[in-house]
Design brief:
Helices cover 67% and strands 1% of the residues. The chain is mainly alpha-helical and 333 residues long. It has one domain. A two-stranded antiparallel sheet has the order 1-2. Keywords: Membrane, Transmembrane, Transmembrane helix.
Length: 333
């Protein structure tokens, strides 16, 4: 149970207190609801992937489904013209906030799902390929995930955009959009899963490089789509057309994913590389929220300091003799 609670806390802290709450302190009031939504949802995803024998592709696919459940069904922010003023951040067409949608795909798949699972694996290496929960715990987790999404609808969406309802057709589309990646993640991808051997002829960059490149690209991705610190207009709003900014953001994110996947097959890829990869993204996403105000800067400074201290503590843990068994060859996360 300790590993399960750790993952629930990690995903909640990564998604909100270390990100949104830096610029919007009122987010802390919603922490109990967010713990249920993020904690139960991501824990359920991780357990499903492990039990069905999936890997990183399955985790990403369920992360996409999770993002649709949260932003499409819960917050209704993908369609609402007023929620968070997201319609003003970029492209809105056919009733959809496309810029907001793309930003949330990156944020939730990486920061809410993949990174917390990666860090939990570093903390509990002996459980990397094993379930955290027994059947009863899994059932309880699943029973909390749905109320978490409903809580977004009735506590956040109803407050930020009272009276708004996503069109029925789009609600059905979101449900199908959740079911399809879930089916792929649990039924198709596990059958096609391969465990590539480590490439002895390929070397991963120095851990500092593995941390710095994602740090830079995370900031570039967020800055392309969202206002710095969620204040004002996006930094590049007047430099390119809104549709082209979506392309630029995607082109920014893809090299980061490619670098991580390619480096993960290198013969010298290690948990230290994973730690730097996670640390670069985490520090960058917190720093993105700091320019909004003096309060945001100070809160972000404290949050970044705590992240660095936690990462250093985990690094010391990884250096302990026999702290972690050798991970599966070629595994990035």
């Amino acid at each position: 149970m300790r590993a399960a609670w750790t993952l629930a806390l990690l995903t909640t802290l990564s998604a909100e207190p270390a990100f949104t709450a830096v610029a919007v302190p009122s987010t802390w009031v919603l922490l109990p609801l967010l713990l249920v939504m993020y904690g139960a949802g991501v824990l359920l995803i991780r357990e499903a992937v492990v039990r069905f024998g999936g890997g990183l592709p399955s985790l990403v696919a369920l992360g996409l489904a999770y993002q649709l459940a949260e932003d499409g069904l819960g917050l209704q922010a993908l369609h609402s013209p007023d929620m968070y003023d997201a319609a003003d951040w970029g492209l809105r067409a056919l009733g959809i906030n496309w810029t907001y949608w793309e930003s949330q795909i990156g944020i939730h798949v990486v920061l809410s799902v993949v990174l917390p699972v990666m860090i939990a694996d570093l903390i509990f290496p002996h459980l990397r390929e094993r379930p955290y929960l027994r059947t009863g715990g899994l059932t309880a987790t699943g029973s909390l995930a749905l109320p978490g999404v409903l809580g977004l609808r009735f506590f956040i969406s109803a407050t930020e955009d009272p009276g708004y309802r996503t069109p029925t057709g789009w609600t059905l589309t979101y449900l199908a959009g959740i079911a399809l990646p879930a089916w792929l993640a649990l039924r198709v991808l596990p059958r096609r899963r391969r465990r590539p051997g480590a490439r002895r002829d390929r070397k991963a960059p120095h851990p500092f490089v593995v941390g710095f490149v994602p740090l830079y690209l995370t900031m570039a991705f967020l800055t392309t789509l969202l206002p710095l610190g969620l204040e004002g207009d996006p930094l590049l709003d007047d430099t390119m057309t809104k549709p082209f900014l979506l392309v630029v953001a995607a082109v920014t994110a893809i090299p980061c994913a490619w670098l991580a996947a390619r480096s993960g097959t290198a013969g010298n890829w290690s948990d230290v590389h994973r730690l730097w990869l996670a640390g670069g993204i985490l520090v960058s996403h917190t720093a993105f929220m700091m320019p909004g105000s003096l309060t945001s800067f100070l809160v972000g400074l404290v949050a970044t300091g705590l992240e660095v201290l936690a990462l250093r503590a985990l690094a010391r843990h990884l250096r302990q003799p026999n702290a972690a068994p050798a991970p599966a060859p070629g595994r990035t996360w």
